[in-house]
Amino acid sequence: MSELIKVGMADYKVGKNPASLISYGLGSCVGIALYDPMTKIGGLAHIMLPDSTQARSAENPAKFADTALPRMLDDMLKLGAFKSRMVAKIAGGSQMFAFANATDIMRVGERNAEAVRNVLKKIDIRLIADDTGGNYGRTVELKLDSGIYRVKTIDKGEKEL
Amino acid sequence: MYEDILKLSALQLDALREIGNVGAGNSATALSQIINRKIDMTVPQVAIMPLDDVPNVVGGPDAMVAGVYLRVFGPAPSSILFLLPRDSAFCLVDMLMGREPGSTTSLTSMDESALMEIGNILAGAYLNALSYFTHLTLLPSIPALAVDMAGAILSVILSQLGQMGDHALVIETEFTTATDDVKGHFFLIPDPGSLTTILAAIGVKE
């Protein structure tokens, strides 16, 4: 059995083959998997909000797309990963409740996904799989032996990205 | 001004617990009358917890639950969430629709409406008591329903709180039928700033 590392809400973890990184029950949050296929080093971030500069409290950098990603990237580089080989896969960012007059608060999932794409562009990491949106929750698991990013849902089946 | 929930006094926490008690008592009575069964409720807990701990109250982020979500409008905007384990929701629907216990295994749109209506009634009863107590006019939005993982459902509220800090203040009560077949958690989660209004309204400023 390989080690299963849990990533909580507003947290990120990095690891090496043969571990797996898993995060349960993402709704509007986005799970970002970064992976270096050569060294089999990967990281999984579970971000809640798009932008730390818009928030009143930015104590926990792992909570925001713009601060979590650069930190996770750094930690992976320290483990020996190479940025030029890294690829990104993302999932989550759904809108769990549909109200007729969707306010910005309700659309946080969409804004999260958008922010993650922008940050990836900025730090120059290729986004190769994107399973965001919808109105359902997801559990995500990054397998560090293969880089497969498994997305499980309750009614919408399971996919491997 | 946004209050610091980590700095509330014991007296303030007690006052919030009492508010939860009055509100939940009203809701439990309403639920009991609708399904014509005895309902037990726990003493409400006022918990201040790290955001990622909140899903553990209902069995962890991947627990399968049905959630009815309402926004509260007025001088103290808040979120109300009535969360039931999915099996409890099915059981409740059986009672509401007069079906054999255990016959519901997925929700039709009529079943969904029934659950939302329950959320509506519980929230209305809760807010009535709260309004009476605080002399604040608090009105619920129309309800929305999701059946999914607890973490996913709660993320809607937690991400709002996350803008302000890393902790949530939740006023939570558990309802249980005497036969233990239906269990539900009722959450009132005040928006940042609303606690100050509520506490001032009942005269417990510190």
Description:
The complex is a heterodimer of chains A (161) and B (206). By secondary structure, chain A is of the alpha+beta class. Chain A has helices spanning 65-79, 108-122; strands at 4-6, 11-16, 20-26, 30-36, 41-47, 87-92, 126-132, 138-143, 149-152, 158-160. Chain A has two helices and ten strands. Chain A has a five-stranded mixed sheet with strand order 1-3-8-9-10, with no helix packed on it. A five-stranded mixed sheet of chain A has the order 2-5-4-6-7, with helices on one face. Chain B has one domain: 3-Layer(aba) Sandwich (Chemotaxis protein chec). In chain B, helix 1 crosses helix 3 (109-134). The longest helix of chain B has 26 residues, at 10-35. Chain B is globular and about 50 Å long. In chain B, strand 7 and strand 8 form a beta hairpin. Chain B contains five helices and eight strands. Chain A binds chain B through residues 8-11, 24-29, 48-49, 54-57, 59-60, 63, 94, 96-99, 105-106, 108, 135-139, 154, and chain B through 2, 51-52, 55, 60-62, 64, 69, 141-142, 144-156, 158-160, 162-166, 192.
Cα-atom Rg of chain A, whole angstroms? 15 Å
Number of strands of chain A: 10
Largest sheet of chain A: 5 strands, mixed
Structural class of chain A: alpha+beta
Radius of gyration of chain B, in angstroms, nearest whole number: 16 Å
Oligomer: heterodimer
* Total DSSP E strands of chain B: 8
CATH topology name of chain B, in short, is: Chemotaxis protein chec
Estimated helix fraction of chain B: 40-55%
Question: What is the beta-strand fraction of chain A?
Answer: 25-35%
- Overall tally of structural domains of chain B: 1
Percent of residues of chain A in helical segments? 10-25%
The total of helices of chain B stands at 5
Question: Average pLDDT value of chain B?
Answer: 88
Key terms:
heterodimer; A: about 160 residues; alpha+beta; 60s Ribosomal Protein L30, Chain: A; five-stranded mixed β-sheet; 2 helices; 10 strands; globular; B: about 210 residues; Chemotaxis protein chec; 8 strands; about 40% helix
